[in-house]
Amino acid sequence: MITIILILFLLYFIFIIFLLEGWRIATRSTATITATPFISIVIAVRNEADQIQNLLDDIARQDYPSDKFEVWVVNDHSEDETFEVVEEWAKQYPARQFQVINLPSGKAGKKAGITDGVNRARGEIILTTDGDCRVNPNWLASVASQFTQSTQLLVGAVRLYPVTSFFQKLQTIEFASLIGSGAATLGWGTPTMCNGANLAYRKSAFFEVDGYSGNEQISSGDDEFLLRKISRRYPAGIRFNASPSGVVDASPSATCSEFFNQRIRWAGKWRAHGVGFSALLALFIFLFHVSVVLLVVLGFVGTLFWQDVILLLVAKAFVEAVFLFRVLNYLGISFSIVSFFALQVVYPLYVIFFALTANFLRADWKGRRI
C-alpha cells in the first residue's frame, strides 16, 4: 500500500508540472481585435429576477459596436418576475438587440433554453453566460479578438465574485483550481473542462455536432458535453481566451445547501462522459486524494513516520500553491494562505465524498428536483 501511495504522489507531482506548463501555453498570447463579427449572446435563465438586470447593464456598456451583437434571454419557466424584469429593461433598446422569450411548454432545462436561443440567433458566433454573472466592458471585444478563423469553440475563464464569507473564499480558490486545470489541459491540446458561464462557439459547429443530442436528459454538462463533441470534430479548433478582460464573474453559493446541490449536480455528469482522458483524469484525482487520506491514517497508526507524512504533504501543498498562485493572479484574486491551508485539510475528504455520493443522491436546482 505504501508503494502505491508513493507512486500516486509521484504521478501527482508530475501532473502539476504538466498543468504549470499547460497553463503557460494557454495564456501566453493575447490577440488584438482585427474584426468585429456579429455575436449572439444567449442567456438561459430561471428565477434570476434579482440579478439579471446587472448582467444586462454590463452587456449594454460593452466597448463593442451595438449593431454587432444581440442578446437572447430565454426564460426557463421562472417562478419569479424574471421575464417581466427583462422585458421592461429591454424597452430602452432596439427590439432586435435585447429580446426575452419564454421556453415553450414541454421544454425545460438549460440545454433546451440554450438550444432555443441558438436556433433564433442571427450571429455565427454564439456566446453564453448565466443570469447571475457580471462581465467586463471589454468582454465581447476579447471574444472577437481571440476567435481566429480556425477557432470553433473558445473557453473563457470564470471567477467567483463577490466574496463575503470565509466559506465563499474557499469556494473561490477551489473553483479557480478547476478553471486553471481546464485551461492547462487545453494548453496541451486536450480539453477537459469549461464553464457555460463564459463559452463561445460557432453556430455552425453547434449544429454540425447536433447540439446536445444524446445528453439532453442530464441536467448539468451543457458546457462540457458540447466541448467534447466539438473537440472530436475539430481537434485543433478549441482555444482558451487568454485575455484577462474576458474573465466573467459568477456568484458563489451563499449557503451550504446551495453548494451541496450544485456539486452533486456537477459530479453527477461524470459517469456520462464514458471512457477517455477526462474520465481517467477524474479517476486519478479521486485515487490520489484517497491516498492522501490513507497517508494520514498510516501516520496515526504508526506504519509511517510522521516526518515522512509531513514531508509528502508539504511537497503537495507547495506544488499546488505554485500552480494556484499563477491562476489566481490571472483571475485577479488574492492568494489567501489561511484559505489555502484550510482546503488542504478538507479538500481530499470533499473529493471523496462527492465522487461517491453523486452516484446515489439527487439535487435541487432552481426549485426543481433533478
| Percent strand | 5-15%
- Helical coverage, percent range: 40-55%
Q: Which spans have pLDDT < 50 for at least 5 consecutive residues?
A: none
Number of distinct beta strands: 12
Task: Using the CA coordinates, give the radius of gyration.
Answer: 21 Å
State the separation between the terminal residues, measured CA to CA. Answer: 39 Å
Give the overall pLDDT as a whole number. Answer: 93
Secondary-structure element string: HEHEHEHEEHEEHEHHEEHHHHEE
Question: Strand pairing plus helix content: what structural class?
Answer: alpha/beta
Number of helices: 12
- Strand count, sense and closure of the main sheet? 7 strands, mixed
The best one-word shape is globular
Strand order of the largest sheet: 3-2-1-4-8-6-9
Can you put this structure into words, describing what you see?
The structure is a single chain. It is built from twelve helices and twelve strands. The protein is α/β, with parallel strands linked by helices. A seven-stranded mixed β-sheet has the order 3-2-1-4-8-6-9, sandwiched between helices. A three-stranded mixed β-sheet has the order 5-10-7. A two-stranded antiparallel sheet has the order 11-12. Helix 2 links the parallel strand 1 (39-45) and strand 2.
SSE inventory with pairings:
Blueprint (H helix, E strand, L loop, with lengths): L1 H26 L11 E7 L6 H9 L8 E7 L6 H9 L7 E5 L7 H11 L4 E4 L5 E2 L3 H8 L6 E3 L2 E3 L5 H22 L11 E4 H6 L15 H10 L4 E3 L7 E3 L5 H12 L9 H25 L4 H26 L5 H21 L6 E2 L2 E2 L1
Parallel strand pairs: 1-2, 1-4, 2-3, 6-9, 7-10
Antiparallel strand pairs: 4-8, 5-10, 6-8, 11-12
Helix pairs in contact: 1-6, 1-10, 1-11, 6-11, 6-12, 10-12
